[in-house]
Structures are given as structure tokens and as C-alpha cells.
Amino acid sequence: DDDDDDDDDSTIKPYRNRSLAWTLKYRKANPYETARKRVLGFGHRSKDDWDDAMSSGQLGQYVPNHPDEMYAPEWISWDEWLGVMRTYNETKHLAANVLGLTSLDDYILFVRSDSKRAEGLRIPVRPDLRYKDEWIDEDSFFGKS
User: Fold this and answer.
1) C-beta atoms surrounding 123 within 10 Å
2) What's the pLDDT tens digit per position in 16-74?
3) What's the predicted TM-score (pTM) here?
């Protein structure tokens, strides 16, 4: 699958009414992760927030108005782009099945010891507090019950 090959420009299409050369130059100067870091600093919580900021000119020249088009090969979702926290069930699955965490202490230690990774994963520091309405208990969250 060529989607993981950063050097393969064949999956990149010209952005809107721009040329492919312009698009490639822009992407080189403003790679996905660099643009996304800027976006995370804005704190937008939804696509509607993003659209409002875009229409009022708040985004600036180094963030494309349509990142889903500019960064199509890397694009995952608006929630990922904006850094919106995962749902309870997504976080529960990620913690227990992907990260292999087995307790709230392990989870908190993971998040505090690697806060950048936790931010990238879009998981909260304290799932028991963030998801208080869905939270049953630690055993349920980590798949022990």
C-alpha cells in the first residue's frame, strides 16, 4: 500500500485550483504534522468551529482551509485533525487492547510519562473523570469483568 510512502507523490492531487507543483511545494513547506500541531493550538472542538474560524480568516496562511483535500493521503478524520478526544468506548478499547494497560494507575502513569503520545492518541489524563457518565469501574474499563 503506497499510502505509507511519504516519498510517493502519485497519491497527491492538485489542491483546489492550484497546480500540482504548487501543492507539492506547499506540502513540503507545511507538512501534515506541522500544520496539525498549529491546529491543535487553536483548540477548535468541531468542524463547525473550524468553518467559523476559516470564514473569519483566523487560520492564517500556513493552515489550509480544506486540510482534508490538501492532506488527503494522510487524512484520518476531522476529530483527529482537531485533536478532539476519543469516545469512552474508543479510549477503553485503545487502553486495554492496543496499549495493554491493565489498571487506572498504569493508564495515568502512561499518560503522564508520555504526554505527547497521549495527546496524539487523543485520550484523556483521567478517563474516570472525563467519562464520568459512562464510567462503571476500573475492572470494566480494562476488560477484567
Assistant:
1) 21
2) 999 999 999 999 999 999 998 888 888 888 899 999 988 888 887 778 989 999 999 99
3) 0.69
Residues 6+ apart with CB under 8 A from 73: 3, 11, 12
- Fill in the amino acid letter for 100: G
* Angle value at C-alpha 15, between 11 and 17, nearest 5 degrees: 135
CA distances from 22 to 4, 9, 36, 51 (A): 22, 13, 20, 24
User: Nearest CA to 104 among 80, 139, 72, 62?
Assistant: 139
pLDDT score at 3: 43
* Cα(80)–Cα(58) distance, integer angstroms: 20
pLDDT for res 8: 63
The H or E element that residue 39 is part of is helix 32-42
Residue type, 72: A
Residue with cell 483546489: 16
